[in-house]
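Forum: Protein Structure Q&A
Topic: Joint prediction for protein chains with partners

I've read a bunch of threads here and the consensus seems to be that you should model interacting components together rather than docking separate models afterwards. I'd like to see that in practice. Below is the full input, 1440 residues plus whatever partners are listed. Could one of the regulars post the assembled result?
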Amino acid sequence: MDKTTNKYLISALLIGVVFHGTAIFFTLETTYDALIHLFFGNHYANNWFDPWSYSWYTGFTVMGYPPLVHQSIGLFSYIGGLKFGLFTVAIIAILLFITGIYRFALVLTSNRNVAGYTAIFGVFSSVFIETLHIFGQLPSIIGLSILLHSLPEIYLWLKIGKYRYLVNSLSLIAVTVTSHHVTPIFGMVFFIFPLIGMVIMDVSREKVESYKEVRFKHFLKSFFSLFKRIVSFGFGSLLLIIICILPYWINTKNNPITQVPIPHGSRDNFLEVTSSGLVFFLIPWGVLLFLFPYIWYRFYSKRYLFFGFSITLLTILGTGGTTPIPLMMLGENAFNILTLDRFTLWASIMALPIFGEFGYRFAEGDLKQKISEKFGGVYHRIIGGLITGVMIFTTLFTMSLGYFRPSQPQKIKMLPILNFLSRDQHDHWRYLPLGFGDQMAWLSAQTNAMTVDGNYHSARRLPELTTRAVERLENSKFRGVEGIGSLQQFLTVPEKYNLKYVFSNDKFYDPILYFCGWQRLRQLENGIMVWEKLNVPPLSSILPREEVPMFQKLMWGLIPVFTVLLAFVINIQLIWVHALKSKNKTFPVYFKFGVAYNGFNKKVIKASYLWVLLILVVMSYGFYLLYIKNVKQLSPINVTEAYYDALDFKEFERAHSYIDPNSNKSIDQYMLEVSVTDGLLSSYAKLDEIKVGIIVQTDSTAKVKVLTRWITPLEKIDRTYYHELVKNNNRWFVKPLPYDLDIPPDQFFVENITSFYNHGRRRISSEQTYHEDVLKQPVLEVLSSKIIEYNDQYAIVGEIQNIDNVPADVVITGTLYNDDNKKLAKYNAKHQMKHKLMPKEITSFRIDFEGIAWMNSEDRKPETFDPDQFTAMEFEEIPTKFNLQSAGNVAIVDLYKGVAINDLSLQKEYIEGVLFNSGLEEVTIPLLLVSYYNQNHELLWVDHQYLQEGIRPQRKLYFSYPLLDLTALECINDDMENVLVNGLQNIEISDKMVPDRKHEHQSVQFLPVEGKGYRYIKLEINNYIGAPH
Amino acid sequence: MTMYKKHIALLLLTSAICILSIGFTTIINRSEKVSAVLLTNQTVFNAGDAIVLEFELEKPVTTKLFLHSSYGSTVITPNKQKDTQYSIPNFMTNKSGVIKYILSHKSAIVYEGELQINPNINTKVHLESYIGPPSIIAGGEDYTMQVVIPTDIYDNPLPEETPIQIGHQFLNTEKENILYTKDMMGWKNIFSYDQSGRILLFSVVGETVSKEFSVEVFPALPENFEITSDRRHKYADGNQITELVTSIIKDEYDNVVSDGTIVDFEIIDAKGAVLQTQGSTINGTAVAKILHPDHKDIWRIKAYVYGMAESNTIKLEYTPVLDDFEVVFDKGNREIKVGPLVSFMEQLIPNGALVKLDIFIDDKKIDTKVKTSLDGVVRFILEEGFYVSGEYDIKIKALGIKKEYNNITLQ
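Posted by a regular:
Agreed with the consensus. Here's the joint model:
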């Protein structure tokens, strides 16, 4: 063997460790997956042999993911903490990858220089950078690297048949299996099968003069001669795949993934969703894209033929939904479970040695000679510069992708949250982070408190989550109806999950929290708003778990580390041999089969030129399309869309640039006009769809109709706008719309307000709150309640009054029973009520019984986004009786009552009115509660309407509410026998507290209407204040 | 075949019986009978006393003492110095009640008996006291319960009939009572007085005084009250604010109702629509605000604390600020200028007065335009794109004044 050290490999290792090793400190924590692995690492560090984690999803098993990488992080964390563990493992992954790709290149090309080039290219390959620095898929990288390490050993075993090589290769396969389960299974197909094919080729080659003479019969003969070795290796690895992570397979069988598939960008059509195309196709391939002809040419040479098949397959599978082929090949099920980006990862890794070979031939081999001869040295250098340039560009671009397009919210300081959770026994309840991104895993890793959410969706157990394509509740706003729907279910009945605290890092969720009856507790030092729900019981001290037999726990805890130790011991000799050259040894046998690099095929050069030209043309066309789309003021439609886009992203300066400059609207004036309007539409809405239609267009003017669809956390809003446009200097501009000119009467005004404070505990004590510090629950009285059937849905409607002397937070839970007292459904009142009541205040309420959406897979899922979507519970039996539990707790916040109904006029099908905010707070979202009554003054139904604009102090808001048709409504039962308040009979409270109730007061608010099925309506207002003083 | 099977079954059965009988004879071992005498005379102790039981055994054998008290059961071994002496562990001797003991030798009962432990009245008394609910309603119907459990330092309730002195203060009243414990505790219901305020309570047993407890007495239900209005002027300008104020709302005992009590003001306008505003009380007075109407109106206002109290009805009249306004059609009738709108002193109406334009074709409403005034003027533009040339009827409404223009031709 060559005694000199491979300088390329050494440089690659040095550059790799320095470059990636320093960069990970800035990138790894903002990747998608790294913090999840960190969380798992923390689990193993604390409970090595216990596979059950209570932290996420009301408990889940960590046997759903091969443990080696996580356990390694856990082990290293004993030395220097969790993050030390993470970074150490990442650096090990970098080293393993570079050496792995070197060895793979060596066995493939039998040329140490080529392998060295490959190692260097590997360091800078965009696919590796993306997988490490953007996706953070450590187990995947380690699994693949070890697999690459095993390839030479497998080659040698097949070729020579010494058992030492079999043991070597199997020991490495075992490590692969325990670090990532998908890698060895697909690696078998895509890496090892072609390698076996190559060995058979080499063996056949020995029987004839050259590869050209290898015929099928030679191949078959060699195949049979090697059959035993192939089978023994195959069986060995199969056995390892099964045994090494046996608990994983058992768990998969017991808890099959029955979830609704979660959309993944790698399954998109890359031509339609260009961002997915960029991330899952262009970046991984990077500079290799230009060398496709050479790569294919080399891989379809006879020796590499099977690699050729493999890379073709991988490339096609990696294109996701762009072509229908991957779906056809994988089948519906596998297509929806697998993330297809890994195929592109493997394909581009497989292509790296060929790229290395190209690099070698180009830099110092026959290609250089050929080009220099034909075009001269300068030309060669220019080409070299271009290729290097593209490489540097893709490297820089990929590295900075996370910086310019952050996939994660800003880094959150966790300490205040951790302090909050550990204080005052707050960790006796579950919590829910909102808008944390993958940092929620880092939070979970540091606290004992548990969350109902989680970040490893294959392990989800609650049907509320698994039936929906929601990755996490935490980012549910990106998942439309399914996300918000899931979230609302958790927020409406938090008692079910002992969920008491929500950490909100995204103001988008605030309205849902408020209208589901949550209240702001305080803002932590890191800007995270803590929301709290009253009346939630703490977690019981013993929680349910799924037990697994002891042998599984032992296997899970011991085998992975054991495989590493074994592989280390067995291969340590190899490492000495390969790296330190302590022993003189001959070249490995595969060195015989190297190709001499003389005479570069002319056709390939030509094809390459054509290919590069084609790619350049395609790219230029793409850029041109992008330009046309992005030139905002080329047409009335473009400018209108751009205008709304700017408004949607609150880029008011950009929006102003589309306003007609002749309208004399200064930027300051414009900013004032748009910034004063708060509300659901301007503060919480996201533009979902926009359709611009031209009504009239002349050369210089146009009128457009804009149909917009906005998504808000509470409901979707359809709005139509009309705009006039003018053309100046070949550019279109939008004419500004009129704005509200109303002037409030008072420049300065004074108001006395009642505000409240509750100490919680007056004594500083680590014990439970003292008995005398616990306030009495405010007494409520249910004035009426009944079961109503309307449109095949059942609901409980009623009215409740706070008859105490302190403000109350009200939670109402309704349960439906059939005639045999069988419980059919239980739910809480959501937003059809005022959750906070001042002393003596009344609210109407309605409890809908919400089922879990799309429990039956045949139910059609709506295609469009609709947060207001409601899935009624399906009743097998008819509910006839009900039980109503209401609980009051002293409330001290969200008690703003300053909005008056200033004008009302009754139209045929709707009522119009004016709201006036007479108080000091700016109402962000007013909610109109409308109660319907019959001629006997009996409550029939409660409806709600969110008003889309906010109301500033002393301002008016015009509203219009369409009246309902309630002719189909039926009252099932209005017996109030089972109505309880704070656990006491409502009737007793009523008799004792308000014995002489003036029942005639109930109807003073009634507005007589000639309604369909009703005679009166009553209006109430619930105000959400986004930013209280 | 069947014969063969029977044989085997028989064989198995006999062997099973053999094995069982051998097993039993070997296990059952006749134990020796040992008798013992208790040397300790005392059977009644005070909690906290050290208790040592000493036995005299007939034969020197090893024994164990099984103890059972309300706190659970345990088995102890003899003291090291003397193997017939047993020290009862503290956690049992500290608790009043009965301790049963059984001295045993190889599972056989050698001696059994019981000890009585009484609360230790010689120690300092500890008081465990509770008050609840912490808030009650004035009027003498509602009450809170004061519970006192005097204990010794080992947390044993003192004997029955232990005297407890309890007392409370409310306004100028200070009352004291003597209770005697029954079933471990002494308790008393403290009924509220007619006034609202705070009751402070305490209790004393022997030398020990409890901490101070407090119970809030909230006012009872509100009684009927009066309302008045306060406004800058009587004009329906749609801009100024009318304040509605209640008198001080009190309960039947003349207590001012709790701060924060919500008072709803229902306003019935001339059309019969019910407008609403609300206020919450501070020192018994609630203030609610409402904007003046922008048209002539008569409001009948009455306030309620729902189901409990109501006010008188007051009537407010709002007179219109103008009788008429000017409308100018321009630019082929496509620009309609409404105004200048002037207010009651001929001043321009404040910005923001609402003007509504209804557009009809052949008595069918096709559109409504709403704009607010700027410097007394509102301009509507009927764009060509939306309104094809032709004849339209136009209705304009501002500040309660309606004007109709029929057969307006748009060019």
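Chain B touches chain A through 64 residues (CB under 8 Å).
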